[in-house]
Design brief:
globular; single chain; 2 domains; 7-stranded mixed beta sheet; Aspartate Aminotransferase, domain 2; 397 residues
Length: 397
């Protein structure tokens, strides 16, 4: 007896990138106090008003099978939101409700990639991207970016990778880097997709967390609406990570086929969760701003702390709930630094290498704990890095 090649090769024969996180959780289970700056989980819980709406729906009886494409009210609400924010005409026929953004990423690649097709993605990347592509039967191909370019893809790199590919996956605001793709970058992405007949899969789950610049959905660019699948989610915008409610927006013919896939895989999202999502999306911008506010505040705290030292570098932190920090001055790679920081100071961060080769020598810090604790942990991190850098300089001499 053996398991399928598809399931045994999801990680490409390497690590899943979560080693430091697993070690931190083991330490916590053993009774060690660890400051966790690893995963993108809000330190506030789902807003009480959203939970109350979910409770009303559940106790009111919306606990049976919901319509597989999503209830009409939620599909209409998501469509109206996208239309209002992007200017692209959008109706329920453009929307499939999914069990979170991760399920949407998998479904999108299943929709546009045949077995053996090449699917492009940008390195650094969210840790599940290559495995998601492999799970869909496609072959992942990374477009490696550079820290010197703020990890934005260069036009020549896009053009070089595109021939023979089927799809391109981008993510802005970006996890792990915190960079927001500017109009020039998205114009190059759009041109590449048009020139090479690529499907574009645009992961926009952090669209409400923009601290500098603006979020532009590439579906709004000329010639892109009919070749773009947009991934959205309630997880980050409304602190509903455990509710597992997301969506795909795309051409009606693609959504129609994706509904067939959902019928044979997830069979929809619980109705009471969808009712709560309708409530949350119609509660107004004030609620979304309240949920985003801690990360905006902590970003400012981080900028002030990092400005007082010269060892740890900051990749432009324009959006999302993360900081990408350059720790190469310490002489360690991201894995080595993150491991040493955890063992020495009981502070857990993600190694840059967890997100691809481009982020080697960097770490990702999630701004997901209370302000004072976050500031204290980041200050300790910078002091630790400075001590390592000084030792590294002495050894080099």
């Amino acid at each position: 007896m053996h398991l399928s090649q598809r399931i045994t090769t999801l990680n490409g024969g390497g690590s899943d990138g979560w080693g430091v996180f697993y070690r931190a959780r083991q330490m916590i289970a053993e009774g060690t106090a660890v400051t966790e700056l690893t995963i993108g989980e809000h330190d506030i819980r789902t807003h009480p008003s959203i939970l109350a709406a979910m409770d009303r729906a559940a106790t009111g009886g919306h606990t049976g099978y919901a319509m597989v494409p999503g209830i009409a009210a939620l599909r209409d609400t998501v469509a109206a939101r996208i239309h209002a924010r992007t200017g692209v005409p959008t109706t329920r026929d453009n929307i499939l409700i999914t069990p979170g953004g991760q399920a949407a990423l998998f479904a999108a690649h299943m929709a546009v990639c045949d077995p053996g097709d090449t699917a492009l993605f940008i390195d650094p990347y969210y840790a599940t991207y290559p495995g998601t592509i492999r799970a869909a039967g496609a072959r992942p191909r990374a477009i490696v970016t550079r820290a010197a370019d703020a990890f934005l893809p260069r036009p020549e790199a896009l053009a070089q990778a595109a021939p023979g590919a089927t799809s391109l996956l981008i993510n802005s605001p970006n996890n792990p880097t915190g960079v927001v793709y500017d109009r020039a970058t998205l114009a190059h992405v759009a041109q590449t997709c048009r020139d090479h007949d690529l499907w574009l899969i645009s992961d926009e789950v952090y669209d409400t967390q923009v601290w500098e610049g603006e979020h532009l959905s590439p579906r709004a660019l000329p010639g892109l609406a009919d070749r773009t699948l947009v991934i959205g989610s309630m997880s980050k915008s409304h602190a509903m990570t455990g509710s597992r409610c997301g969506w795909i927006a795309g051409p009606p013919e693609a959504i129609e086929r994706l509904i067939d896939l959902a019928t044979n895989t997830t069979y929809g999202v619980p109705g009471f969760v969808q009712d709560a999502a309708v409530f949350a999306l119609t509660a107004g911008d004030e609620l979304e701003a309240e949920i985003a506010a801690p990360f905006r505040r902590r970003r400012q705290l981080a900028h002030a702390i990092l400005a007082r030292q010269s060892c740890v570098g900051l990749i432009p932190s324009q959006g999302a709930m993360y900081l990408m920090l350059d720790i190469r001055a310490t002489g360690l790679d991201g894995e080595g630094f993150a491991t040493a920081l955890l063992e020495t100071h009981h502070i857990a961060v993600m190694p840059g290498e967890s997100f691809g080769s481009a982020a080697a020598g960097h770490i990702r810090v999630a701004m997901t704990i209370e302000d004072d604790a976050f500031a204290a942990a980041l200050s300790r991190l910078c002091t630790f890095a400075a001590d390592l850098a000084a030792l590294n300089t002495q050894v080099a001499q």
